[in-house]
Amino acid sequence: MATDFRLKDQLPQLTKRLVDTYASLGTINHLGHCPLPNYEEVISVIHDLNEILYPGFRSREGLHRGNVEFYVGDLVDRLHDCLTRQIGRALRHEAGATDSCTEEEDYEALGQAKTLLFLDRLPELRSTLATDVQAAYDGDPACKCRDEVIFCYPGLEAITVYRLAHLLYELDIPFIPRMMSEWAHSRTGIDIHPGATIGNYFFIDHGTGVVIGETCHIGEHVKVYQGVTLGALSFDTDGEGNLVRGQKRHPTIEDRVVIYANATILGGETVIGHDAVIGSSVWITRSVAPRTTVLLEKPQLRMRAEV
Amino acid sequence: MATDFRLKDQLPQLTKRLVDTYASLGTINHLGHCPLPNYEEVISVIHDLNEILYPGFRSREGLHRGNVEFYVGDLVDRLHDCLTRQIGRALRHEAGATDSCTEEEDYEALGQAKTLLFLDRLPELRSTLATDVQAAYDGDPACKCRDEVIFCYPGLEAITVYRLAHLLYELDIPFIPRMMSEWAHSRTGIDIHPGATIGNYFFIDHGTGVVIGETCHIGEHVKVYQGVTLGALSFDTDGEGNLVRGQKRHPTIEDRVVIYANATILGGETVIGHDAVIGSSVWITRSVAPRTTVLLEKPQLRMRAEV
Amino acid sequence: MATDFRLKDQLPQLTKRLVDTYASLGTINHLGHCPLPNYEEVISVIHDLNEILYPGFRSREGLHRGNVEFYVGDLVDRLHDCLTRQIGRALRHEAGATDSCTEEEDYEALGQAKTLLFLDRLPELRSTLATDVQAAYDGDPACKCRDEVIFCYPGLEAITVYRLAHLLYELDIPFIPRMMSEWAHSRTGIDIHPGATIGNYFFIDHGTGVVIGETCHIGEHVKVYQGVTLGALSFDTDGEGNLVRGQKRHPTIEDRVVIYANATILGGETVIGHDAVIGSSVWITRSVAPRTTVLLEKPQLRMRAEV
Amino acid sequence: MATDFRLKDQLPQLTKRLVDTYASLGTINHLGHCPLPNYEEVISVIHDLNEILYPGFRSREGLHRGNVEFYVGDLVDRLHDCLTRQIGRALRHEAGATDSCTEEEDYEALGQAKTLLFLDRLPELRSTLATDVQAAYDGDPACKCRDEVIFCYPGLEAITVYRLAHLLYELDIPFIPRMMSEWAHSRTGIDIHPGATIGNYFFIDHGTGVVIGETCHIGEHVKVYQGVTLGALSFDTDGEGNLVRGQKRHPTIEDRVVIYANATILGGETVIGHDAVIGSSVWITRSVAPRTTVLLEKPQLRMRAEV
Amino acid sequence: MATDFRLKDQLPQLTKRLVDTYASLGTINHLGHCPLPNYEEVISVIHDLNEILYPGFRSREGLHRGNVEFYVGDLVDRLHDCLTRQIGRALRHEAGATDSCTEEEDYEALGQAKTLLFLDRLPELRSTLATDVQAAYDGDPACKCRDEVIFCYPGLEAITVYRLAHLLYELDIPFIPRMMSEWAHSRTGIDIHPGATIGNYFFIDHGTGVVIGETCHIGEHVKVYQGVTLGALSFDTDGEGNLVRGQKRHPTIEDRVVIYANATILGGETVIGHDAVIGSSVWITRSVAPRTTVLLEKPQLRMRAEV
Amino acid sequence: MATDFRLKDQLPQLTKRLVDTYASLGTINHLGHCPLPNYEEVISVIHDLNEILYPGFRSREGLHRGNVEFYVGDLVDRLHDCLTRQIGRALRHEAGATDSCTEEEDYEALGQAKTLLFLDRLPELRSTLATDVQAAYDGDPACKCRDEVIFCYPGLEAITVYRLAHLLYELDIPFIPRMMSEWAHSRTGIDIHPGATIGNYFFIDHGTGVVIGETCHIGEHVKVYQGVTLGALSFDTDGEGNLVRGQKRHPTIEDRVVIYANATILGGETVIGHDAVIGSSVWITRSVAPRTTVLLEKPQLRMRAEV
C-alpha cells in the first residue's frame, strides 16, 4: 500500500470545517435534541405487524391454532412497547421540545394512549385487507391463487403499509406514517400518502410509479395500474407567496372505477364517477361522469416506413 | 418513562380478538399447514446464482482459474439442496397438501428432479446473458465498458432474474418464479413476468416502470427504455363474469425493435414488426409493420407566455 | 426426505460445464484479476457520508456539540481509508491492470489524492444540500417541517447521492459514481446520472421513474415530478455504426423551471428557458422560451357512456 | 501485495491429498450420512430454556404477568420443534442409520415423544433450581441478594445446564446431554457429567476445575468449592484389556457435606457420610463417617528464611 | 417428518403450568419490575474500555496520533451514555424499586454522577496497567515481547477487567462489577472478586483456577500461578446461624511475594510477608514471615515398581 | 431520563487526558504502525481448519464424497489468502517494521511461503489426530463412541489447536501460534504452549487447569487428567537479574505414562520414565524410573468427629 500517512494530517482540519457548518447550517443537522423516531425501529414495527396481519406467510413458520395466540400475544406486547416509545419521540419532536428533555414522560404517556388506540384497530383492519387480497385475485388473470397475492404482490404490500400508516395518521401521529409509507414506496415504487382515504377491495397492479396524493378520496372496488398519478393540479399560494397547506388538492375516485396504466388525474375538484374506466395514458383535469369510459383518441402518430 | 403498565392489561384481550379473526378471515392466514417456500431462502438462491453466472463480479473476491471450480462446485451443491427443498414446498402447497404432511417425500423427490433440470440449463444460460451484456454496451453511449454493465445496470439485473425465473416457470414450478421476479421488481422497478419469452441481446435502459406481461413474445436485439408497458388491452370474462385465465393477452415484439421511454403497447394480437422504432410516450393498440417508425405527431401543446 | 443422493452425482459434471463457460464466455466473468471495487464497501461509504452530512438524523443518536466532532472526525478518518482503497481499485481496473498486481501502490496513492480532494468538498456540499432541503419544504404543501424532508423524502435521498457521485465523477473516478447512483436509483426509482450538472434548490417530488441523463444541465430552483424523463433524442453513430460517446445528448433546463409528472424532454440542443412550466405528460423535443407554460392541449379523449 | 498467484497452483493438489485422507482415515470424518445434531441449535435450546426457567433475568426485558404467558408459550412451541428435530437426529445417528435416510420419520416421532417427556418436567425443575439459588445465597458471604446468584454465579449456570442435561440423559437421549454439559464446562470450568445424580440445594462456589463423574451420587444441601474432583480411582478392564463401561466408578456424597477447594475424592465405593466436612486440598480414596471433619494434617512444609 | 401435530396440543397446558410456577416460585423470576442491567450492554462496555486502554491492539485498526482522539472521544461519549443507563438500572434495582418506575430519573442522575467519577479514573488506570504488562514480560521466560502480553495473556485480560470492576466497586455500584468479573472468569478461569485490593505490577501466569477473594489485600510486584486460591478459612455465623457478611475473610499478600501453582492460602488473618515464596501445591492457613520460602516437604510418595 | 447534558461537557477534557497517556505510556498502545495480526481472522482460521480436519462434524451439513472436494478446495483457497495476510503482518511486526509500511510486500511473500509449508502438513496431521481420537475412546469408560469425542471432548479441541499452533511455531511464525493456543485455553481451560512437543495418541480428560509448558517433551500414548501441571521449577536469571529465555525448563514425559488429576511435575531435567503412573495430586520435582507407580502416601489427615 502506498497510502501516505502524512497526507492524513489534513483530516482533523477538514473535520473542524465540517463541524463548523453544523453551526452555520443548522437546519440540516439535529444536535443536542432529544432523539427522533428511530428509522430501524419503525421498519421493524412494519415487519411485526405483517406477521400479525398475515400469520404463516411471513418469516415465522410452523404456526397453527395451538401456538398462534402465544406468538401473536408476544408480538403485540413488544409492538406496544416499541410504538409507545417511537410515537412518544415523534410527538415530543413535533412539539419542539427543548434540550432538557425534562417532560419526556408526558409524551410517552400520550404515545402509549395512541398506541393502544392503534392496536385496537388491527382486528378490523384484517377484514379490510382480506377484501384487498380478494380484489387482486379477481383482478389479475395471471394470478393463480390468493396465497400468491399475499406472497408476491407489491400492490398488496403497499396497500397494507398505507392502511397501517393511515391509522396512525388519523391519530395525529407525526413523522411515523410518512416514514412507513416512504419505506413501502422504496420497495414497491408505489407512493400512497398516508392521508389519502381508500375504500375496501383496492387493487394496484404492477404499481411502479403510482402516486396517490394526500387528499385523495377513493371508493371501493377501485383498480389502479402502474404509473397512475392522482395528483394536484396546481398549488394555491397566499398573499405572500407561501403555499396554502391543508386544502383538498387531489381527485375523488368513486366506487368501481378502473384506471389503466400511466393515466394522470389531477385536481382537488376532479371527480371520477362510479363505474368509470380511465384508459391507459389518459390525462384528465376535469370530472368524468359515472359509467363513462375515457380513452385516448386514435393516437396522432407519425408512421414512417424505412426506405 | 411514564408507560402505565396497567394499561397493558388490555393487550391479551386484543390478542384474542386478533386470533379470532384467523378463524373468521381464514383466507389471509396460513396456519396448520406444511410450510410455504421461504422468502429469504429463495432470495439467497438468486444471490448464489449470480455468483455462479458472473464469477468475480459479486461478493467473492480473489477468484482465479485455480480455485473457481471449487467455489462453484460448492455453491452448486448447496443450491441443489436448497432448491430441492423450496421447490418441494412449492409443489406440495400448490397440490393443496393436507395438514398431516405425510406425503412430503414425494414432493421433495419431484423438487429434486426439477432442480436438476434447472441446474442443467445454467451453462447455456450464460451464453444468453453474455448477449444481454453486449447489447447494453452497444446500446448505451454513457457506458464505458462491459464490466460496468455487470456491475451497475439494473436492466441486466432484472433480465438475469427474469431468465432464471423463466427457466423455473417452464418447469411448472409454482410461486418461486414470481417471488424471484417481484424481488427484482422491487430492486429495479422493472416488472417482467416469468412467463414472458424474450430473445437474446435484450437491453432495458434505466428501466423504472417497465412492465412486460406474462404472454409477451419478444424477439432478439430488442431495446426497451424506462416506463414502457407491454400490457393487456382488456380481459375477457366468461359467462359468469370470471376472468378467463391463460389466453395470450400481451403483444409480440419482433427482432431489432426499439421502444423508447414510456411507450405503451397493448393487446395480445398486437405485433410490432421487426426493425420497427416506437417513439417515446407513444400509445399503441394495433400492429405495426416491420421497419416502421412510430412517433408522436407534433404534440398538441398549449404554449402560454407569462404576462 | 426423499432426496436421492445418487442423483447428486451429476453435479460435479455440471460444475465442470459451468467452469468451461468461464473460458469460452470470458466477457462476463472476472477471474485472476486484481479485485474490483467492493459494492458493500461503496454503499457503506454512502451511509457514513449521510451521517456526516445530516448528523443526528440517521443512525447515531445522542449527538450534541460536545461529541459531534469526535464522531465526525472518526468517520472522516475511516472514510479516507475506505475510499482510498476503493478508488484505487477502480482506477487500477480502468487502467486494464494485469494479473500481477505489481503496481497497486501507484493506484492507491492516486486513490488517496482523489479521496482527499473529494473530502475537501464536503463542507461546501452541505451548503448546497441545505438549499435542496429548503426547496422541498417550499415546494410541497404536504410537508409539515424541514426535518420531515431529511427523514422521509426520497427526492432528497436521490439528490444527496447524486451530488456525492457527481463530485467523484468530476474527479474522473470510474465505476464508483455509477455504483452509487444505481444504489439510489434502486431505493428511490430516481435515476440521475452522476455526470449531470444540477444547480442549488433542486426538488424532486415523489420521484419514481425520473430519469436525468448524463449531459443534462439543470439550473437553480428547478422542480421535477415523478416520471419525468430528461433524455436523449437519438444517438449518433459513426461511419461504422458504433455509437458516438461523449456528446451532449440531453436537454438544458434553466433556472426556476417546473416540470410536472411524466413529462418527457429530449435532445441535447433542447433548452427549457428560465421560469418555464412544463405540464404533466407533455412531450417536448424542441426548445421552449423563457417564462412559457406548456400544457397538453385539451386532450383528445374518446368518452363512451355505458349503455 | 506480493502474493504470487502461481504459487497457489499447488493448492488443488493439496486439496486432493486432504480429500484422500477422508477415505483412508474414515474415523474422523462424517460424510454421506444423515446429519448429526447441530451444535448451534443445541446451544440455542439452552438459551431458550434459561429464558423460561429464569424469566426476566436473561435477554428479554419488560416481562410481566400480562405478557409472560405469551412469551413462554411461544418459546415452548419453538423448543418443541427444535428439540424434536435434534433428538431425532441423535437417535438416528446412534442407531447407525444408513445413508439412505429412509427411516427418518421413525426417529423424529421418537424424538417428539422424548421431547414431550422432557418439557413436561420443566415446571418441577424450577422448584429444584429455586433450592439451588437459595443454597448459593445462604452459602456465600460475598453474595448480596438472590438476584445476584441468577445473574452472575457460574456455579448456578453449570448446575442449571447439568439439571437439564440430566433430564435428557434419563430419557436415554444420546450426544445432546454431553454437548450441553461441555458447553457449560467451557463457560464455567465446571465439568458435571449428565449422568451424575445430585439432590436439591446444591452449591458450587467459584467452580473452576470442578469435576463430577458420571456415577456420582450427591445428596441434598451439599457445598463444593473450586478444583474439587469427584472421580474414579482406577478403571477395570476385562480379560482382553478393554475398559469395562457402566460400573459405579465415582463416590457417593451424602446430605449436608461440604467439600473445600481442590479436594479430591475418588472411587465408586467411597461414601462421604452426611454432615461431613472435607478440607481444602485433602485427597481421599476411602469412605468417611458421617459428621466427620477431614483436614490436611499440619502441613509438612519446609520453611527457609532468606539469608 | 413424522411430527404429530396433535401431540403439540399439550403444550399450552404445559405453558400454563410453567407460568403458574412464576407465582409460586417468585424468587427466581423477575416480572413486572423495571429492567435489570443488561448483560450484553455491560460486556460491550468492557470491549469499548479495552479499545481505549490498549488502543491499536483490539478491533480497530489504523489508529495513529492524528485520528486517535476522535476515536477515543467518540467511544468515551458512548460509554458515558451506556454506563449511565446501566448503572442507573443497577442502583434502582438494588434500592428495591417498585413497579411504577416513577422515580427512574433520580437513579439515572445518580448513575451519571458515578459514571463520570469512573471515567475520570481511566487515565490513571492506564499507568497501573502498564506496570502489569511490564510484570508479565519480566516474569515469563516464554514471553518474547510486551505486545504479546497485551495480545494473548489471559492473566492481563483478567487483571484489566478486575481493575475496571474494582473502580466500580469502590463507587458502590451494585451488580455490574460482579457481572464484569464473572465474564472475565468465564473467559480465563481466573476469578478475582472486584472487592479485592491489588497493587501495581501484578502478574498471573496461565491462571486457570485462580481464586482471589473479596477481602484480599495484595501488594506490589506479586506473582501468582495457575490454581492458586486466596480464600476464606471458614465463615462466621451469627447467633441465628446466618453468615456474617462483610468481615475480612481472605489473606493479605505483601510486596514481591511469589505464589506457585495450586498453592492454597486461607484466612483473613493470614499474612504472607514481603519477598516470601510459596511453593507449588503448598497449603497454608497461618502467616508466613517476610523473605521466607515455603515448599512442600520431600513429598510422602509411595513408589511401586511394576513387577 | 435525568441525564444532565451539561455534565457531559467534561468528556472532551477527559478524552484529552486519555490521549495524553498514549504518548506518556507508549508501551501499551499501538499507534501509527502497520496493523497487527487480526484476532477475529486468526480465530476464523481455526474454525475453517476444523471444518477441513473433521469434515461433517462441524458447521457444514450434507457433505458427501461428491461435494467434499469442492467444499475443502474452496476453504483451502481462502485459508491460503487469509493466513498469508496474517502471517505477513506477524512477521512484519516482529521485525519492528517502521511506520512507512513500504516493505510490506516482502513480508507478505514470506507469509505466503510459510502458509504453503503449513498447509502442506495438514494431510499428515489428520493421521495424528485420528490417533488422539482413538486414545480418548480407549481411555474414557464414559465415552460411547468415537463421534462423541470429536463432538464434545474439550481435550481433543485443545489438542487439535495445539497441533495446528505447533506447526506454525515450527515455522517460526510469531504471535499467531500463541493467539491460537490462548483461544483454546479460554474455551477449555487447557493451556498447552505451542512450543511443546507431543507424540501421537495423546489424551486429556476433563482438562480444566492443565498446563503444559513450552519446553515439555511428551511421548506417545500419554494420558493426562484435569489440573495437571507440567511446569518449570524455577527460572534462571543472568548476571543482571534478567530471565534467561530459551532453556529447557519443563519435564519430559515418556511413552505410555498416565498422570492423574492435579499432579504437578516440575523441572527441565525431570524425566517420567515410560509406563509410569503418577497418582492424583502428587507433586514431583525429580525423575521417576520407567514402570513406576507414584501415589500419595496414606494421606496425613486429621479426622474430627462432630461432638
From TrEMBL, chains A, B, C, D, E, F:
Keywords: Acyltransferase, Amino-acid biosynthesis, Transferase
GO biological process entries: amino acid biosynthetic process
Domain of life: Bacteria
Entry's Gene Ontology molecular function annotations: acyltransferase activity
Keyword rRNA-binding: no
InterPro entries the record matches: LbH_SAT, Ser_AcTrfase_N_sf, Trimer_LpxA-like_sf
UniProt protein name: Serine acetyltransferase
Organism of this sequence: Aeoliella straminimaris
Species lineage: Bacteria, Pseudomonadati, Planctomycetota, Planctomycetia, Pirellulales
